[in-house]
Amino acid sequence: MIFEDRKTCRRTKVYFRPFQDEDENAFRSCIEDYYGGGYPYKQYLTPGYLSNKCRKSAMSILCGVTEKGDIISTSAVRFDTEFAGSGLLLLRVVRNAYQGMGIGTKQEEILLQSIQGRKELLSLYADVMAHNTVSQQSLARQGFVLCGVRPMLYRAEVMLPGGAWPKGARLSQAVMCRRERVGDAGVFYCPEEHREVAKQIYDELGVNCRLESKGQSCTVSKTVYSNQHDALHHNSIWVIQEVGEDFASLLEDLNLKTERIFLCYLNLKSSGAANAYRMLRRAGCFFTGLKPMNRSGEYMIMAHVGQRCVRNAEICLYPEGAWLLDYIHKQYE
Fold it and tell me: The N-acetyltransferase domain covers which part of the protein (predicted)?
C-alpha cells in the first residue's frame, strides 16, 4: 500500500505482515523510537517474549514494513490478560518519521479484521494515552467507546523522556472498549449514584445490563485479586475478582496516604462488591469509569491520587468522550 505525507509529498510503500521471530530487534527499535526509551511495559521488549506469546496464540501481532524491510509500525492484541474474554490492544506505534500518513490507522484496521474469527472474544479494549487524541479518535472510528480514565498513572518524564513536561507532570490513559460477541452483560451491582452514567456507557456499547443497587455480603474469607506495583512510576493497580472478608485489612495495609497513584478494578458481580465500594470511597477513592464485558465479570474503575490535583486540562479526550471526564472530575471533587 502507498502512503503519502501531505506536508512533504513523500510517498512510502508499506505492507503489513505478522510478527516473525527475527523481527525482535527491529520491533524493539520501533517501540523505542516512539517512546524515546520510556515504554513502561518492559516485559514485551525482553528477548523471546513476543515470539513465545505468538506461538501460544496468546497474541496477534502485525508489523508495517517498507520495501527495504524496515519495520516502521507495530500493533498487537493480547488475549491472555486477567480480564478473561477481553482482548487488549497494545504496542500501537508508528515511527516518528512516518507519522501523519495514515499508516497506523490502516494497520489497526487490518489487525482488527484478522481477529474477527476468535469465538472466545467477548470484547476488545485499549488503554490509550490521554495527552493527545489521535489514537482515541482512530479507535472511535473503529467502534470503540470511551468507558473510563486511568488518571495520572505514569510519570511523564519517564514515559516520554525528552518532552517539555512541567516538573512532576503525570500522564493519564483513556479506557476504550468495543463489543464483540456479547449482547447482554447480565445483572450486577452498581451504586445508586453511578447508575445513570453506567447505563449510558452500556447503551453506547450496545449491550444490555440490569443494575442492582443493593449488593450481597461476602461469601468468601479471602479476597481474590492481583496486585501490580510499579516503583518507577509510583503506582499500584489492583484487579479484584472476588471480595473477601479480609478486604478491609488489605486496604488498610495498602496505606493510601503515600504519594503513590492507586487504581482499582472492582468486579461488580462479586458478592461483596457493595461493601468494597463503600470502603474504597471512605478511603478516598473515586469513580473513574468502567471496564465492561469480561468473562469474569463487569468492573468499576476507582482511583486514589493522594494529595495531587486532577485537572481536566491535563487530560485530552476526543470530543464525544468529554462528558465522561466532566463526570469523573465531579466525583473527584
Answer: 14-161
Radius of gyration (C-alpha) of the chain in whole angstroms: 20
Q: Structure pTM?
A: 0.93
The answer to whether 232 touches 155, Cβ cutoff 8 Å, is: yes
For the chain, the straight-line distance linking the first and the last C-alpha, in angstroms and rounded, comes to 49
Residues 25/118, Cβ–Cβ less than 8 Å: no
Which residue matches cell numbers 508489523? 63
List phi, psi (to 5°) of 276. Answer: -65, -40
Give the type of residue at 326.
D
Count of alpha carbons within 13 angstroms of residue 117, beta-carbon side: 2
Instruction: Quick: pLDDT tens for 141-194.
Output: 999 999 999 999 999 988 888 778 888 889 999 999 999 988 899 999 999 999
Tell me if 295 sits within 8 A of 182, measured CB to CB: no
